[in-house]
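thought: fold this chain, then report.
action: predict
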Amino acid sequence: MPDMIYLDNAATSFPKPQQVYDYMCEFYKTQGVNPGRSGYDASLETEKVVLGTRKMLMEFFGGNTCSRLTFSYNASDSLNMIIQGMTEKGDHVITTNVEHNSVLRPLYHLKHEGVVEITYVPFDEGGYVDPDDIKKAIKQNTKMVVVNHGSNVIGTVQPIGEIGRICRDAGVYFAVDASQTAGTQKIDVGKMNIDLLAFTGHKCLLGPTGIGGSYIGDEVPIRGTRYGGTGVRSAHPFHLEEFPYRMECGTLNIVGVAGLRAGLEWLLERGIDNVLAEEMRLWKKLRDGLAAIDGLTLYCAESAEHHLAVLSFNVEGWEAGDVGTMLDVDYNIACRTGLQCAPLVHVQLGTDKLHGTVRLSIGPFNTEGHVDLAIGAVGEIAAIKRRTTKV
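observation:
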């Protein structure tokens, strides 16, 4: 079987840099002990890696306080803690139609339980949210605005800095889902007026699955929503209020932290601007090649400005899932089809009636050859439908 052409990097980056695999393996073999729980050398060395990674990520996101960078399983885990920890009965929350279910579902559960009311702000024809629409939606009881920085369906990058300024002026907390942008877009929580940031390690930060986290601003009054061991002050009956313990409990995924550190180091060595520029060069080639095929509809792909290397499309006459199956079985191309866990994007685009889209997403290890093969494969699939239609 020929090597898989992997174009599903918006789901998880693959492969990872070799140094990520090497560092994780060596770290776990030599320092795979519980950090900070004991005074022996291996435990102290492991704690240095954890603290060092906190500091690296805190600086990477422009934060001020290392302890406010906390680890979790992934962005969905962090967003659940953020949304549940920031809201109370009677609060109003503003979000958008570009959100992933990691935002939509926690909010929906709170609405269903009578805790919050929600306003959903649509995006324009290009796939962008107008900050003025956020401003118009703010009410007296608005507690928080939650926005997806970069869409995992259409790839558009929202004007986070402008939205953050509006929230700060209105005295409303601003939470950002950086699942698709942490590692590919420059994020400065201070300059962008971001109060709460959720990120995952296994996408653009090039780490393993099962590790992510959040950065919580110094003055943000988030409640802890989970309780357990912290390794310090064990006689205290209540979970500790100080950070990072307020957002963490139990043993950390230390090998995940190590892999995340190695992925971030790889990115910093190359420069995230350089990595994104190469991905977008390939995205433009892919976009232009697919746009030339009869019977294809591309979504929100007119401009490469403020965009990720994510492209969604449909082939006339084909179900998205069938196209994905043919790409896999006949061409060994891995992609994602369906609603991509972001149903409101598809409702607004009308692609929910088509059972979603075909999504191709480029990563740092894709090549022009991969893109050429993908364009050729989609072209052949589209031609099959044109021939059968004529018959």
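thought: worth noting. The first strand starts at residue 5 and ends at 6.
final: tokens above.
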